[in-house]
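ok so i was messing around last nite and threw this chain in just to see what happens. nothing serious, just curious
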Amino acid sequence: MEGCEMRMGNVLLLTFLVSTLAIMGVQHLNKEKPLGGQLMFFENGYAYFVAPSSMLVEITCFSQNNAFFEVKVIDPETEEELNSIRSYGTAKEVLFIPHSGPYYFSYEGSMPSCTLKSIKILPSREILKLEYSLGTLFALLLSLLIWREKNGNNNC
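result:
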């Protein structure tokens, strides 16, 4: 009976290992999908953007008549200014968004028109740690069960 339980354990662990690898594959395919759009500044001078994950984005801003503007990117969780774009007319910058969640964009000077376009969507560090830890754990447990099965009695 012990051999049957080991085989069932092997099948279960192998299923977990394969599903973990499949999730990582799907995640890799989804990071190539473009994300972005037009930033709409409200009367209070702020625009909001919600990032689904950490990512690299390209921000392009321009103002009419080559007027001066400054756009600040603020992380509301840390209240840290991530980037500041100052320009006359047109500006294009690459910006790293460190985590998922909302971000604020504020402007000074002439109200610019800004667009965001994702360059690369990255999984968060916590998700990667979890995926790699689970995959490693399942692989080690599966190896242990296979080793025990080869060195033990197989009565099933």
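not much to say yet. The CA atoms of residues 42 and 156 lie 70 Å apart.
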